[in-house]
Fold this protein.
Amino acid sequence: MSNTYQVRNLEAWELEESSGVSSVERIFRCMIFGYARVSTTDQNPDLQFDALSQAGYDRIFTDKASGAKADRPQYCKLLDQVRPGDTILIWKLDRLGRSLRHLLDVVDFLNERHVGLKSLTDPIDTTTSQGKLIFNIFACLAEFERDLISERTKAGLAAARARGRIGGRPKGLSPEGKRNAIAAASLFREGNHTILEICQALNISRSTFYRYLRYERKRLKEEVKATEND
């Protein structure tokens, strides 16, 4: 017996145990899957459970993880089990998506699989024409907002350049940085100290140490070139 067959049998058995729907009945029946998420183990999901129970579902999946985290095992399991015609029921949109962009991607993924999404506290129900229209309006507004921010950023940079200012990080080193760069390069050339010891002595990171070396190498080359030109 293959591992894939065993996994599918296990999933079917779990579905029967949790929802009371047999694997044979599952083939012909569309199901409603609830999904709840709380950010930390201290938060209580009862509010979401009560609202979802009142709306009605066949099975529920629950994650205890921050919305910013991509690793949500029950969420991934939910997406594996939904079939065309099924509906995912959530309390609020922010329980499902990590961000607006992620939420739009999730809905596109569900639409491709002909799976509906219904939010109890938001006017979103992609199983209806009106719900799809509202969500599409949200998507258009999100796209408009991104374009507007990008346009304002470009306009701000253009105005700054017109006044002689250039965006980005300041070039070169501060006076203290220049002194540290000279010290770091000198200690390194002596060969009596490790890089770690030099970094600890100057209270700098390893990446900063290498940046100082590049700066000193460039500065010395420019000094030599200036001397040759004289």
User: Anything to note?
Assistant: Strands lie at 32-38, 59-64, 87-90, 116-119.
